[in-house]
Amino acid sequence: MTPIEKARAAPRPTVTLPQYRRLLRDSGMVSARIDKVMTNLEEMPATMRRTYFKAATGEASPRECIQAFCAECVGWDRASVTECTSIGCSLYLRRPWK
Ligand code: SF4
């Protein structure tokens, strides 16, 4: 089982930040990017980590990538995505949680 498959199979609350760091190292990601991804993982609510991790490692669907991008765009606040007023944004009509 690959590190990505392990992350997918794990129940959401059981993947800890140190485990995410190990999975990123095992994926072959360069260390500078690991540090940036880990910073994001540390800042976001735990409920958003799995989708973001999948997007950051190239394992997410386009829909999940949009979800992760919108969440990051508004500082990981789901309600702010719902209330997004950037009607000119190319992702506006496809944003999650509306
Ligand atoms: S739709 Fe809104 S929340 Fe999503 S990326 Fe665009 S501006 Fe950000």
Tell me what you see in this structure.
The chain is elongated and about 40 Å long. It has six helices and no strands. It has 98 residues and is an all-alpha fold. It has one domain (3-94).
Could you name the key traits of this structure?
98 residues, elongated, 0% strand, binds iron/sulfur cluster, mainly alpha
Short account of what is shown:
With 98 residues, this protein is mainly alpha-helical. The chain has six helices and no strands.
Secondary structure layout:
Blueprint: H1 3-9, H2 17-26, H3 31-43, H4 46-56, H5 62-73, H6 78-82
Helix pairs in contact: 2-3, 4-5
Bound molecules: iron/sulfur cluster (SF4).
> Approximately what portion of the residues adopt beta-strand conformation?
under 5%
How helix-rich are the residues, as a percent range? 55-70%
Radius of gyration: 14 Å
* Global morphology: elongated
Number of domains: 1
Instruction: Count the beta strands.
Output: 0
Largest sheet: number of strands, sense, barrel closure: none
Class of secondary structure makeup: mainly alpha
Order of helices and strands: HHHHHH
Hetero groups bound? iron/sulfur cluster
Low-confidence segments: none
Helix count equals 6
Q: Output mean pLDDT.
A: 93
Distance between the termini: 35 Å
